[in-house]
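Q: A reviewer asked whether we had any structural model of the full assembly, not just the individual parts. We don't, so I'm hoping you can provide one. Inputs are below.
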Amino acid sequence: MSRKTGRRLFWVVSLAVCLAGFLLSVLTGPVKTSPGDLLRFIQSHDRVQAAIFIDLRLSRAVLAFLVGAALALSGAILQGYFRNPMADPFVVGVSSGASLGAVVAASLGFEAAAFGFSGQGLLAFISGLGIVSLVYVLSLRRGGFKVETILLTGIAAGALASALTSFFLFMRSDSYDQAVFWLLGSFQLAEWQQAATIAPWLVLCFVAAIWLARDMDLLALGDETAQALGCPVRRVRKAFLVMSALLAALSVAVSGVIGFVGLVVPHWVRILIGPGHRALFASSALAGGTFLLYCDLLARNLLAGELPIGVITAAVGAPFFLYLLHKKR
Amino acid sequence: MSAATKKQGEPTRGNKLGDMYRRYVSPSLSPRFPACLLHKRDIHSEKERGHVPEVRQGADSRKRPAELWRSGSKPQFWEISEKNPAMRGGCKNVQQRALVLVALVFLATAMILCVPVLKGSQDLKDDLGRPFPLPERTPERIVSMAPNVTEILFALGLGDRVAGVTRFCDYPPEARSIRRIGGLVDPNIEVIQSLDPGLVIAFRGNPLRLVDRIRKLGLPVFVLDIGQGLENLFPLIAKIGRVTRTEGRAGELIGGLKRRLESVDAAISEVVMRPKVFVLLYGQGLWTCGGESYVDDLISRAGGTNVASSLPKKWVLYKREQILEDDPDVIFILARSRKDFATGRDWLLRKARVESVAAVRSGKVFELDENAASRFGPRLVDVLDRMVRLLHPELFGEKL
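A: Here is a predicted structure for the entire assembly that you could use as a starting point for your response.
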C-alpha cells in the first residue's frame, strides 16, 4: 500500500468514524431516544426534543470536536516546536495557569460572563495566556532564545501555579466540588455560543498552521539549518508558540483542563501517515476532534452520573502512551 | 468667559442665589445633589433589583448647581446677571423661579425613586436578584436541585408535584422514588429538560454556570441562598411558598416552626450556665463548624457555646491541641447512623486522644442526625430541640 492510498484511507475512515460519532452523540444520553425519535423530530418540531437534540446534545458534540481538534493541533505544533515527543499543549504552563485562574475565580465568586464563557472561563483564559507570556519573557531574558529554557521555565511556572491552585482550593473548601470538574475537564455546560466563540480562532490557527507547515518541517532539521535554508526561524517560532498557546487557552477556557489529547493524538497520526507537518496538522485536528467526541460520549453514558472527561482521556491515553514508549525502545 | 470672570471680581447678586440655594436646599440635601442621584450604593441597589434608573447627565452635571448657574457664557433665564432679561423683574421673581426649580427637582427624584419600588412590588426576585415572573398556579412539575428544597416542598404538601430530585434527596422517604437528576454540582441538564418542568428550584450550592445553562434553555429557574442562622429559614420557606403559590401552607409551616423556636427561646432565657460545645463532623479529620455555619447558630440558640465560634468559616479543620485547651463540656458527633456515631466516637477517643476533656470524662458525647442537621430545612428545629434536651437536661427534668 503506497503512502498516498494509506493517507486517503486514513481520511475516509476518520471522516466516517467522526460522522458516526456525531450521530451517536445525538442519539445517546440519559434520556432514552431512538433513531425513530430523531426522524420524527426532523419531520415535526417539538420543544422538549429540540432542546435535547439540538441545544444539549449536538452543541455538546460540536464543542467536544472543536476542543479536541484545538488540543491535538496545539499538541502537534508544540511537538514539532520543541522537537520533543513529550511536549503537549500544557507543557508551557497553559493548563496550570488556567486552572489557577479558574480556581481563583471560583473562590472569589467572580461570575461575570462574556462570549459564552463563564467568569471562570474568562479568568482561566486570561491567566493561561498570561503565564505563557511570562514563561516566554523569562526564557528570552536568559541569554537569547532556547527551546530547553522555555520548556524548563514552563514546568517551573506550572508547578508554582499548581501550588497556588491547591492553596486556593484548600482555603475555600466549599468550592472544591465545582473545581474538580474544572480541573479534569467537562463538557457538561456546553452551549452553542461557546462553539461559536472558539470556532473562528480554531479555523484561523488551523489555516495558519497549514500555511507554515513547510517551515515547521525545516525546523525539524535544526534552527541553524532551517535559517540557512531560508526559513525566518524566530518569526515562525513566535507564530507557532502564539498559535498553540491560544488554542490551548481557548479550549481550557471552554471545557477545563483535558489532558492527553494533545499528547497522544499527534503520535497516533504520525504513525499512520508519517511525519510531514502539513498532513500531520490537518489529520491531527480531525483525529483529535473525533477522539474527544468519543471520549465525551463515554463520559456522558458510562455511569449514571457525569464523569469528568479528563478521566476518560487519561484512561485511554495513558496506556496507549505507555505502549508507544515501549514500542520505541 | 466674560460673564464668569467678571463675577469673580465684583460681588454680584449671583452669590445671593447661591446663599439661597444653601439656605433652602442644602440642609436637606447634599450640595452635590445631581450627583447624589447616582450615588454608587444607590446604583448597586437598583441593579440588584434589576432596574437601573436612567438619569441622563450632561457634561455639567458633576458641577455644583451654583457653579452650573455661573458656567454658561450666554445668560440663562435663571442666571443672575444684568444682561439677563429675566432679572429685570426684580429679586422676588428669582426667588419664585428658584423655588419652582427646587420643587421640580424633588418631584423628578421622587418619580425616579418610585419606579423601581412599584416594579419591585409586582415581581418576585430570587436570591441572585433576578426578577422571576410569578406563576399563576402551582406548577405541575417542579424540579428540586437540593435536598433541603425537596424537604421544604414536601413539607408544603407538594410532594406529588416534585418531578425531579438530586441523588442526595432521601428525606422524606417518598422522595427516593422520584426521578434523579444527578448531584448538586453535576445534575444532568438533559434529564431536567426531559422532565419539562414548570419550575426549577436551584440552590446557591449549585454552580452558577449550571443554573445559567438551564436558564438559557428557557426553563424558569428560581435560585435560593443559604442563610447563616436559623431565622433565615423562614424567608426561605416563604419564598418557596410564594413561587409555588402555596403561600397559605408556607405561612402555617413558618408559624408552627416559629412557635417551637419561641418556646425554646423562652426555656433558654432562664439558663445561666452555657456549656462549651465541640461538634465533630464524622469523616476525615477534626472537621467542625465555624462561626459562619448555621450549626453554630443552633448551638447558641440551644444555650451552648461553640468552641470554634470565633473562626470565620463555615467548616473548619480544627487542631487537636485546641480541643484539649478549649476543654468542651459536650461533644456532638454529626453522623448518618448509629454505627457511624460509634466509629466516630471511637476515633475521637483512640486516635485523636482527647479523652482528658470534660465531655469525655462526664460521658457527654452525643449523636446528632447529620442528615437533618446538614440540610437547611424544617428539620433543623428538630435538631435544635434535641440539642436543648442534651445541653440542658435540667430544664426538662423540672418540667417532668
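A: Points you may want to mention in the reply: Chain A has a mean pLDDT of 84. Chain A touches chain B at residues 29-31, 48, 51-52, 55-57, 111, 113, 118, 120, 173-174, 177-178, 181, 188-189, 191, 304-306 (CB under 8 Å).
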